[in-house]
C-alpha cells in the first residue's frame, strides 16, 4: 500500500496515528523513569529513637536496625517474589 500526499484523509490518519503512538511512548518512558529502585517497605519502632526496617533495592530485601548513631545490616531477606510465611497461624490446628 502506497500513501500519496494527494490523499488528505490518509495523511491525516497517518499523522493522528504517529501522534498517538508518540504520546503513548512518552507516557511509558516517563512512568519507567519514576520507578524507584530503593524503598523502605516497612518499619517498626523499638523506642528511644531506634527502629528496624525492611529496605528493598530492586528485588533484594534487607532487614536493618538503626539508632541515632548507627545503621546496621541485620540480615538479607528472601527476594520479594519469594512466598511469604505466616507466623501467626503456625502451629495452630
Name a few traits of the molecule.
single chain; 93 residues; rod-shaped
Largest sheet: 4 strands, antiparallel
Shape: rod-shaped
Q: Span from first to last CA?
A: 70 Å
**Quaternary structure annotation:** single chain
Q: What would you report as the Rg, rounded to the nearest angstrom?
A: 26 Å
Bin the strand percentage: 35-45%
Topology:
Blueprint: H1 8-33, E1 38-47, E2 50-57, E3 60-67, E4 70-77
Antiparallel strand pairs: 1-2, 2-3, 3-4
Structure in words:
This protein is of the alpha+beta class. It has a domain at 38-77. 28% of the residues lie in helices and 37% in strands. It contains one helix and four strands; from the N terminus they run αββββ. It has one helix at residues 8-33, and strands spanning 38-47, 50-57, 60-67, 70-77. Strands 1-2-3-4 form a four-stranded antiparallel β-sheet, with no helix packed on it. A hairpin with a 2-residue loop joins strand 2 and strand 3. The protein is rod-shaped, with a radius of gyration of 26 Å. The relative contact order is 0.09.
